[in-house]
Amino acid sequence: MIQRLDDWVLEQTLLARADGLPALKPCSIRLLGQTALLEAELPLTLAATKDVDVRADYQDSVRREFERLLALEGRELDPLGHEIWMPVETRYSELYAGKFVRLLLAEPEAVLVSKALKAPRKNGPLLTEYLARGASERFLELVSAYAVDLEQFL
What is the C-alpha to C-alpha distance for residues 123 and 126, in angstroms, rounded to an integer? Predict the structure, then answer.
């Protein structure tokens, strides 16, 4: 789907240039929240969600096309996804690098810390399962940096 978005941006850019109009700017889309965990394919019990949480620097026309493409797959862009708190140290891995669109995935440990800190009650079962499987060093490092109380999940 991101390939289709990148192709659309390229097509729109070529049309704009042919008409002497400003071209669309390259952009980055960072997947956050549950969507990032699903994409990371963690061995956890994750609830399927239609909402896609992102932080992106795209222009409005690109956002609208992204929403359209998501809808074709039965998904929807969460209008408040950009407000999700993420640790400042969050690392992102590149899932796709096109001519105009880059898709980045937030590291699962940072997403889990965000969930633990901002919505512990809602995400309690997920965090309990994660801790039972053995938390990574990276997760524990972030937990320590943000003083997350893990006792509530044990």
Answer: 5
